[in-house]
Amino acid sequence: MVSRDDPGVMLLRRERKEGLGRAYRHAFGHVLESGSWDRVFMMDADLSHQPMHLGALDEALDRHSMVVGSRYLTGVSVLNWSIARLNLSYGANKYIRLVTGMPFTDCTSGFRGFRSGILPVLISSNIKASGYAFLVETLYDVWRSGQDIGEVPIVFVERREGSSKVSMQVFLESLLTPVRLRLRRLIRGQ
Prior knowledge:
By secondary structure, the chain is of the alpha/beta class. Helix content is 41%, strand content 12%. It has helices at 20-34, 54-60, 83-100, 119-122, 133-144, 168-188, and strands at 39-42, 66-70, 78-79, 112-115, 149-153, 156-157.
């Protein structure tokens, strides 16, 4: 459904929740099918990802196929998180880099911009993750496809309302996905 106020904004309603990854793949499929955009941005709608950083992502897309808004590029740029949550996020990124070999400081960031030419990689049937691990798997697949990926610093602000949707299943998928990606690379050379 196209917004009445801005035809560049489209709302996709889904019958039931099927995970973050499936929702993004559904949206990416619509963007690819429309052929209307050459740059695509993804961000949290709760304003944890601040719109003021969109300009930096857009500018970096002049040099890269994909750009990740990183909370850790210039130290730690997260507001209103507990030390435990910050350590978990920072440690998860170190774990992902160690297991997968990816060089990025923030593999779990959902604040990204990319050129529409990489949409086929993002909706590829190779991608199995449906929860937050989708972010890791898509970054990994774009990186392994040889695309140039950049990072720009952002300040992440904890949401004011709502709560995290991380279930035990999502946590386990996030823990196992880097291992699965590494094994896939070793077995199939992907």
